[in-house]
Write a structure and sequence with these properties.
Blueprint lengths: L4 H30 L3 H22 L9 H6 L7 H11 L22 H24 L1
Length: 139
């Protein structure tokens, strides 16, 4: 997409909003984890990472669509470290099944998630957010 100067400036301004929401979503994930809602912690962590990567896309003057964190990372102009993409792939697995009963062969979502999964989700989201924060600060 070709943008004029005003659209690019507006998108960059919204990048900060997306990043602020990513950080808020990550904090919400920690609260959900503390409350024992590990399925929601996993989903909120995925959302935090997704919004952070979208913030970076906007910061760089491009739009990003979709919910697949790994793909959003690979679509950045400069490739992120491969381990970050792998972290995105783990988080992508929390997007649907953590919320919908038909996301697993049986049982409600909360029956499939515990501290192991939510710790992993928070760790991966935190690493992605730190990467985005550093990339936005370095430009």
């Amino acid at each position: 997409m070709i943008l004029n100067g005003n659209e690019e400036k507006s998108m960059a301004n919204r990048a900060r909003d997306w990043m602020a929401q990513a950080e808020k979503d990550c904090a919400h994930a920690a609260v959900a984890q503390d409350a024992g809602s590990h399925e929601w912690a996993c989903f909120a962590a995925q959302q935090a990472a997704e919004k952070a990567v979208k913030a970076l896309h906007l910061f760089l003057g491009q739009e990003a669509w979709g919910h697949v964190v790994a793909r959003l990372l690979t679509e950045l102009p400069e490739a992120p470290p491969p381990d970050l993409i792998e972290r995105g792939k783990v988080l992508d697995n929390f997007y649907v099944p953590s919320r919908y009963p038909n996301g697993h062969p049986e049982g409600a979502p909360f029956e499939h998630y515990g501290p192991l999964q939510s710790n992993e989700a928070l760790d991966h989201a935190g690493e992605i957010i730190a990467f985005v924060r550093a990339a936005m600060a370095g430009s």
